[in-house]
C-alpha cells in the first residue's frame, strides 16, 4: 500500500503541533507566562505618580502600580495616594490595606506614611473621621518597603492598595470589628 503526499504532510503537522503543545505546557507550568521578572516591564502606573482612588459606599476599590526592586527594607518611597468621594452624596467610613506582590505569588503587607487622621490596627489603616460626600482626603505621602522583604533589583513588583468604604448607616463595629468615630 502506497501512501500519498497528503498523509506525510498531515503526519508532519501533527508532530509539530504535539511539540508546540508540549513546549506551551512546560512554559505554563514553570510560570514563564506569568512572570514579571524583567525590569523593563511596561506597567502603566509606576511608583511616584499621584494616585487617586474613587470610592463608592459599601464597595471596595483598588489600585495597583509597579515597583522596581531597587530599594532596601524600610526605605520610604514618595507616593501620594488620595481618596476621592466627589461623586458621593453620603458620608462613608474608610479603611485601607496595602499589599506587595512578587512574581512567585508571595504577598507581603506594605506600610504607608499617613497623616494624623489615620490609625493602624489589625493590618488596616482606619480614617478617624467620616469622609464627607463630595470631598477628597490624602491617605499617604510615602510607601515604606516592608522590613521582612528583600527586593531584587532585577525583578519588578506590584503594589496594590485596597480602599474599603462603608456607608454610615451600617455598624462599623459589627462589620469591621472596629468602632469608628
Helix content: 10-25%
Could you give the order of the helices and strands?
A: HEEEEEEEEEEH
The geometry reads as elongated
Question: What is the structural class?
Answer: alpha+beta
Percent of residues in beta strands: 35-45%
Task: Describe it.
The chain is of the alpha+beta class and 181 residues long. The protein is built from two helices and ten strands, in the order αββββββββββα. It has helices spanning 5-30, 172-176; strands at residues 51-54, 59-68, 76-84, 92-101, 107-109, 111-114, 118-121, 124-127, 136-144, 156-167. The strands form two sheets. Strands 2, 4, 5, 7, 8 and 10 form a six-stranded antiparallel beta sheet that branches. It has a four-stranded mixed beta sheet with strand order 1-3-9-6, with no helix packed on it. It is elongated. The N and C termini lie far apart (89 Å). The model is unreliable at 36-42 (pLDDT under 50).
What is this structure's SSE topology?
Blueprint: H1 5-30, E1 51-54, E2 59-68, E3 76-84, E4 92-101, E5 107-109, E6 111-114, E7 118-121, E8 124-127, E9 136-144, E10 156-167, H2 172-176
Parallel strand pairs: 1-3
Antiparallel strand pairs: 2-10, 3-9, 4-5, 4-8, 4-10, 6-9, 7-8
Keywords:
181 residues; alpha+beta; elongated; six-stranded antiparallel sheet; 2 helices
Summarize this structure briefly.
The chain is 17% helix and 38% strand.
Amino acid at each position: 500500500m502506497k501512501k500519498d503526499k497528503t498523509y506525510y504532510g498531515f503526519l508532519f503537522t501533527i508532530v509539530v503541533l504535539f511539540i508546540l503543545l508540549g513546549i506551551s505546557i512546560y512554559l505554563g507550568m514553570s510560570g514563564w507566562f506569568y512572570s514579571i521578572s524583567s525590569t523593563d516591564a511596561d506597567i502603566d502606573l509606576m511608583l511616584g505618580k499621584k494616585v487617586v482612588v474613587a470610592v463608592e459606599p459599601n464597595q471596595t476599590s483598588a489600585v495597583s502600580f509597579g515597583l522596581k526592586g531597587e530599594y532596601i527594607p524600610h526605605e520610604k518611597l514618595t507616593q501620594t495616594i488620595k481618596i476621592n468621594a466627589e461623586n458621593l452624596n453620603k458620608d462613608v467610613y474608610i479603611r485601607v490595606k496595602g499589599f506587595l506582590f512578587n512574581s512567585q505569588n508571595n504577598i507581603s503587607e506594605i506600610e504607608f506614611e499617613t497623616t494624623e487622621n489615620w490609625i493602624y490596627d489589625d493590618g488596616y489603616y482606619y480614617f478617624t473621621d467620616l469622609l464627607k460626600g463630595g470631598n477628597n482626603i490624602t491617605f499617604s505621602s510615602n510607601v515604606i518597603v516592608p522590613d521582612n522583604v528583600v527586593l531584587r533589583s532585577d525583578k519588578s513588583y506590584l503594589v496594590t492598595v485596597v480602599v474599603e468604604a462603608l456607608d454610615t448607616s451600617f455598624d462599623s463595629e459589627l462589620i469591621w470589628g472596629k468602632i469608628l468615630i
